[in-house]
Amino acid sequence: MHLAVWEAWGERKNMLVFIQSDPEVPAGVYAESLAETWIPFIVVELFDSGNMPPLRDTSAVVVLGGSMGIHDTGKHPFLLKVKDHIRAVLDSGKPYLGICLGGQLLADVLGAKVSTGSYGEVGTHSVSLTEKGVEDPLFRSVPGRFTTFQWHNDSFAIPEGADRLACSDICPNQAFRFGENAYGLQFHPEVNEHIVTAWCDGFDSGNNPPHKIISTFKDMESPFRVVSLQILRNFLDIIRSSNKLT
């Protein structure tokens, strides 16, 4: 947990909580940006028996990605705790952002299917906003087609009652919103070169070698980061408009 950020803020409440299920999938540039701007946050490392703070002390929740699937509760029983927490966040009306696995978990909690092997993507790809995505506050000032980083084999269907906000040439469902402020993303806006390089260690897909994945990301990292940080700023604005972060 990032206790230094807690202490700098002066009180342990109104925190933006990152839930990390995999030691190799950290909050990346999002944690860096929040620390630089003194936004109160913690990272709960559930893979290391971390415990989530009370929801009453939470401004919003971000569930990060992971190598496991949503049904791997036998090997990773803490996923059941994450699903229960997501339900509580939805009931509370607090803002929620699910990234990759976090988006799939949100879809599953809402009754939508999460499939394996149909729309997998690895590497730097473009994502396009739908008409509703262009109008959505999470994507304010984001181009209609923008650069993202992908690393997934599973993908979610859009839950009943949710709005599809983004798509790609390979994966039709890249983002959705449920209710006022619960979001699921399939892509990874939080990564940096260090994270991408770590994920590529030992990865072998034949026609998509690690050195190509890394070099392409490095070439596109500047426009990628501009969009990623804009999405973060937009999510913080959503939190503020919910009167949970001052």
Count of domains: 1
Structural class call reads alpha/beta
Please bin the fraction of helical residues: 25-40%
Low-confidence stretches: 1-10
CATH class wording: Alpha Beta
**Sheet having the most strands:** 9 strands, mixed
CATH architecture title: 3-Layer(aba) Sandwich
Q: What's the CATH H-level superfamily name?
A: Class I glutamine amidotransferase (GATase) domain
Annotation, overall tally of beta strands? 9
The strands making up the biggest β-sheet line up spatially as 2-1-3-4-9-8-7-5-6
Description:
- By secondary structure, this protein is an alpha/beta fold.
- The protein has a single domain, classed as Class I glutamine amidotransferase (GATase) domain (Rossmann fold, 3-Layer(aba) Sandwich), CATH 3.40.50.
- The chain is 35% helix and 25% strand.
- It is built from seven helices and nine strands; from the N terminus they run H-E-H-E-E-H-E-H-E-H-E-E-E-E-H-H.
- A nine-stranded mixed sheet has the order 2-1-3-4-9-8-7-5-6, with helices on both faces.
- Helix 6 (193-200) packs across helix 7 (210-241).
- The radius of gyration is 17 Å and the shape is globular.
- Residues 1-10 have low confidence and may be disordered.
In short:
With 246 residues, this protein is an alpha/beta fold. It has 7 helices and 9 strands. The two termini are 21 Å apart.
Layout of strands and helices, then pairs:
Elements (H helix, E strand, L loop, with lengths): L2 H7 L5 E6 L7 H9 L4 E5 L12 E6 L14 H15 L3 E4 L1 H9 L4 E16 L1 H5 L9 E12 L6 E5 L7 E4 L3 E4 L7 H8 L9 H32 L5
Parallel strand pairs: 1-2, 1-3, 3-4, 4-9
Antiparallel strand pairs: 5-6, 5-7, 7-8, 8-9
Helix pairs in contact: 6-7
